[in-house]
Specification:
Blueprint lengths: L3 E6 L3 E4 L3 E8 H8 L2 E12 L7 E7 L2 E9 L2 E5 L4 E4 L4 E5 L4 E7 L1 H6 L1 E11 L10 E5 L6 E3 L5 E7 L1 E2 L2 E2 L8 E8 L4 E5 L5 E8 L1 E4 L3 E4 L2 E5 L5 E6 L3 E8 L7 E3 L2 E3 L2 H12 L12
Antiparallel strand pairs: 1-22, 2-3, 3-4, 4-11, 5-10, 6-9, 6-11, 7-8, 7-10, 9-12, 13-14, 14-17, 15-16, 17-24, 18-23, 19-22, 19-24, 20-21, 20-23, 25-26
This protein binds manganese (II) ion (MN).
Length: 291
């Protein structure tokens, strides 16, 4: 049975632009090696927004060297980027944006959500790319709710939405550069769940709502991340109440990480180059800006 390495709680809330009140759950500036290939997670909400005709969110900004993965639980997000990718997503949908060599993008509440207002809840993950792919062409995968297989867990313990990776010989729709699993799980109260995950891979659970007991001893509450030891493969979970959680596992990328703001590369020199390329307008233009 896998053992708990440690449990991490957010150290406070901050706003990303004027649309996303987030708790940073982890970052490569604190637990880079433990979470690789995952670089960062921000948890936005849950929060209620009144109706508005304003564009709430983050205007045009660059990224280079990794992927941003946005999972919407409640509300809606619109995105446009300089690779031509974009669209509006709602509950259950996922945007998987490969910044790689560089994009400019903007992230706002979707016009449909802004018009009605309501509850908003979203996770944004940053996923690292291996050095050999950091300067690959950018890309965009809009993955809709109905593209994501939803699988019943054994013993009626709940259900699993397979966003990326494999479960029970099925594959999730997201294309990834390195092996990883991103599973969105809903467990019933008193549900007993066992997962088999590759030994040697990073493994962590993030609880959105509810409460889990992990490895028969460790309580994990809402907005907490439990990071497991990489040894062993059998992960044992009990849901103490109805619980929504994410499973993140993946093969670690054992390469140096040097980041600054929206850029995550392997060396200081590559960061200096990214800043220079951005200053000189080498990240392209957003053709279909959200308005
Ligand atoms: Mn961004």
């Amino acid at each position: 049975m896998k053992k708990v390495a440690f449990i991490k709680r957010s150290n406070g809330k901050h706003w990303v632009g004027d649309g996303f009140p987030v708790r940073n759950i982890f970052s490569y500036s604190d637990i880079a090696a433990e979470m690789s290939p995952f670089l960062l997670m921000d948890y936005a909400g849950p929060v209620n927004f009144p109706p508005t005709n304003k564009k709430l969110g983050v205007g045009q900004h660059p990224h280079r060297g990794f992927e941003t993965v946005t999972i919407v639980y409640r509300g809606g997000v619109a995105h446009q980027d300089s690779s031509g990718g974009g669209g509006s997503i709602g509950p259950g949908d996922v945007q998987w944006m490969t910044a790689a060599s560089g994009v400019l993008h903007e992230e706002f509440h979707s016009p449909e959500f802004a018009a009605t207002g309501g509850d908003f809840e979203m996770v944004q993950l940053w996923v690292n790319l291996p050095a050999q792919d950091k300067m690959s062409a950018p890309g965009y995968q809009g993955i809709l709710n109905h593209d994501i297989p939803e699988i019943a867990l054994p013993n009626a313990a709940g259900s699993l939405r397979l966003i990326a990776g494999e479960y029970d010989n099925l594959r999730g729709p997201a294309r990834t550069f390195t092996p990883m699993n991103v599973w969105d799980v809903r467990a019933k109260a008193k549900g007993e769940i066992e997962f088999n995950l590759p030994a040697g891979h990073t493994c962590a659970l993030f609880v959105l709502e509810g409460k889990l007991t992990v490895s028969q001893a460790h309580t994990v509450n809402s907005a907490e991340l439990v990071v497991m030891d990489r040894a062993e493969s059998r992960l044992v979970i009990t849901a103490e109440q109805t619980t929504t959680f994410l499973v993140l596992s993946g093969e670690p990328i054992n390469e140096p990480i040097v980041g600054q703001g929206p850029f995550v590369m392997n060396s200081r020199q590559e960061i200096i180059q990214a800043v220079e390329d951005y200053r000189h307008g080498r990240f392209g233009v957003i053709e279909n800006s959200i308005n």
